[in-house]
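Why does residue order matter? Because the sequence determines the fold. Keep that principle in mind as you read this record.
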Amino acid sequence: MLYGRTSLDRSEGRSVDAQLTELRRWAAHATIDGRPVEVVAELRDDGRSASRYATRSRPGWQQAQDLILDGRVDALAVWEASRASRDRSVWTALIAALADRGAVFVAGGKVHDPADPDDGFMLDLQAGLAVREAGVISKRTLRGKASCAAAGRPHGIVNYGYGIEHDVDTGRPIRRLIDLEQAEVVREIARRLLAGESASSIARDLNARGVRNARGGSWVGGNITQMIQRPAYAGLRVHQGRTLDVPGTWEPILTVDQHRRLVALLTDPSRKSVRTGEHVRHLLVGVATCGVCGGRIRALTVKRKTGPVVAYNCAAKFCVTRLAAEVDKLVEAVVLGLLAREDLAAALAADDPTASAAAEEVARLKAKIEQGRRMVADDRLSLESLADIEARTRPRIAELERHARPRHVPAVVLDTAGPDAARRWAALPVAAHREIVRVLMEIKIHKSVRRNGAEPPDLRSIEITPRR
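Structure:
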């Protein structure tokens, strides 16, 4: 029986294919006890460690052990002794099994009889060297990981939102770079979770838009909550479960404040597993910014003679304070105007070439059907022919309309848009209103100009800038 193995450590030597090729060459000319060698099995394990530190099983090695224990082989041949095992307990069990069944061990073309005292001693020496080398490799690896962590360099999996730049000559990884498209998805997930939307709702929306996860599959709410809590997104380096003081060498996608707020939110034991977003009550909190200092806007309850009212206030320096109801009314009017635009979908798809091309094809096919209707009216085309054209064209239009929806735009925006936008808007929760506002516009709240101590009806000091 021939067995080959390599680990992920490239310094270990030949590939499994090269090992087995050399073993076949040996078997073609070798004899054991005067008899020609007959290969009854070839087994292999690629990229699998054989030390006691290994975390993955070796299917090929398990089959080899079964053949030895069943007495179906007279010899086990490997390229070198360490290919069989670097674990002292496994090695001891192997030698005992070979000796009990009268089988021999072949390493590097040399035949060893485990039952012979001298051969057994030599095998023990080879085993000791293999075990020592495994310990040295483990120590070197741990030291390398610690050094990498101390320098803030990345290690381990490449998170969604990032890619790796490789050296063109050696192929070695140089650094991690932001994947612009995926990074926007990460920021959107963080923003929507902090706004009170559930992870399952976000997952459904991403899947409806055709946005794929890191493995090219569909999103799941539980996976989203695990992913978004990774410190790497805030540029934080973690080593052995501890966040280090040194910053990472890669560009962060989220701020440290966002990361901490997300972790606090998603690990809160009182948090419901399903969040409806009903607790979100104010349209522009976390959406609008202060027109004076650029700080975030919060909502405060202000006591007045007529009773308590809600006001938007600069959370950083108290620069501005405006009545929430009047500001919301103005913003909603602008939003509904944008949602009613016929060219909204095309404008939102401008940054997505695939969606733009699909939208153009939809327009062409619809124009084709409209032309057919005019030809029917002019008696230049029969109704049967028009029906045939529509039957063949409508499915294609439906398919293209799905592709025409820009992947970077939440589905709720385009689902709300259209002539009936006002009715759809009224039926949505505040969390959905906030997401629509974020996509369509930027809002800055400036100081109001008071006249005779009263809040002026002129709200031109609310700066609204459509994003496209």
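Residues 138 and 144 are 10 Å apart (CA to CA).
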